[in-house]
Amino acid sequence: MPPVVPPFLVGLIVAPLAKRLLKPLVRGVVKTSVGIALEVKKAAHEAGENIHDLAAEVAADMVAAQIASDDGHRAAESTAPIGERGGVTDRAEGEGRAPKIRATAGAGAGVGAGKAH
Asked: How many CB atoms lie within 10 A of CB 49?
């Protein structure tokens, strides 16, 4: 019959060995996980930029197509006889549409800047 070794003695011997062997293994797993997380974050950021660029290109194409169709519509109206223009007689010849005014984030930056909230 083998000698009986108390479990705490086994723990005293195995713990330092496990620490020496497991510490580099755990460190490698954590290092690899952080590296993968950074790569995924970088790839997601690049994909977001690509989608944003694509959306900007599509919007620009749509605006260009709308401007081209409006110009073609105006050219057809200006060549039509006066009675067939349909509503164009309200504007003088050559007068275009009024530009749209868009609010920007910095437009009201100075308003109430001196007030304490």
From this structure: 10
